[in-house]
Amino acid sequence: MKGNVFTAMAMSAMLLLLSACDGQKWSEEQVGSFILVTQRGGATLGYSPQSGVKLLTHDGYAFKDLNRNDSLDAYEDWRCSAQERAANLASMLSIEEIAGLMLYSSHQSVPMTSNMGFGASMYNGKSFEESGAKPSDLSDDQKKFLRDDHLRAVLVTGVESPAVAAEWNNNMQAFVEGLDHGIPANTSSDPRHEAKATTEFNAGAGGHISQWPTSLGLAATFDPQLVHRFGEIASEEYRALGIATALSPQVDIATDPRWFRFSGTFGEDPQLSTDMARAYCDAFQTTPSAKGWGTKSVNAMVKHWYGYGAQEGGRDSHFASGKYAVYPGDNLAMHKRSFVEGAFRLPGGTDMASAVMPIYSILWGQDPSGENVGGGFSKWMIEQQLRKEAKFEGVVCTDWGITKDMKVLDSPIGGKPWGVEHLTETERHYKILQAGVDQFGGNNEIGPIVEAYQMWCKDFGEKSARERFELSARRLSATLSL
Predict the structure, then answer these.
(1) Which pLDDT value is given to residue 20?
(2) The pTM is what?
């Protein structure tokens, strides 16, 4: 064992010495199933030898030819800024590929269950138990939505173990690297570190990682520095699991103790919630050595914009009976503070949370136009208040399932199209796009998005539709580890 390690180290040193002599600044070695590329003064790269991706060389550095066209495109050039790379990639994508970036998968477990119903899938046409598949293998449904629907944002809930989660993520990255433009997958998770949580909102707590109090428990410390330290530890564990986006924190101001999502917040104090939101997002997103975005960074998707903590009667908008949020004290503006003054003002170099999830609820009687629709459908809430007034430039992703029809009254399983129940699924996607949203949570299929694009073409012309789709593609691409 030791002899093999020393031999490998000697060979790597020899390769670096030889490359220095001929102007080549990189070397590569096999690490597990991947090729690792290390560079003097350049980015560290990894690629799968099975994906078809080859290396390009320029100025002595190595770059991945992700679209396999034998040319170094700007999105493949790690020397360019994230914005430059995202703009180049967006301009090259087909509408179907952009529609795929707009998808955010339904809940996935590793491995997927074989039971019919929520979270079920097959492996080579058989149940997981019958298939002989490894826990880290991709399921049939996962391969389909990655390949056929161009989906790249995947929500992972339960995992068998941290090792299986990491191996599954590597398998998924190898799979998508050989597709289309080689766009990597963005694996995400609901909060995973809570010592005790309801499975409704935290099915992903599995995995042997550090355990912490709920957000309300952390808030009870009144110590933002402690929350910042939690974020540093949690983000490092996320990256080890292959997770690049956290669907957290929940920074809603909890003004009704009857509301059963109270424990997921930082409480009822707007200033405390603001301070905690800032500490949480800053720690998750900042890589200290890079003084901003880096290899230990995890995107924070802060939620829920905005006013969720004032549910009518304490009921919740996961259910039809709780679709309304009300503000008899006329204090809706207070619910913005944890976002605008907290999550959107980060001192560590990443500026603001990279993504926002809008509220399910209808903010009854608040829209000056008189429209009463759920937050993801509201142009007043997204385009006017979030984009223009709060100057948020990142990704906006709907909460899960708002484009689907409600199946059973007051069941959490099914759609939540509050205020637009009369619209078709395609019309709901179209309205969401018009509101300024980029991504559709819980949707694995591009069909309704492509149909919404066609509706935009009919109403405003193909040029306008393409520009709108590229705008979202740039925002979404900027969050990826290209």
Answers:
(1) 47
(2) 0.91
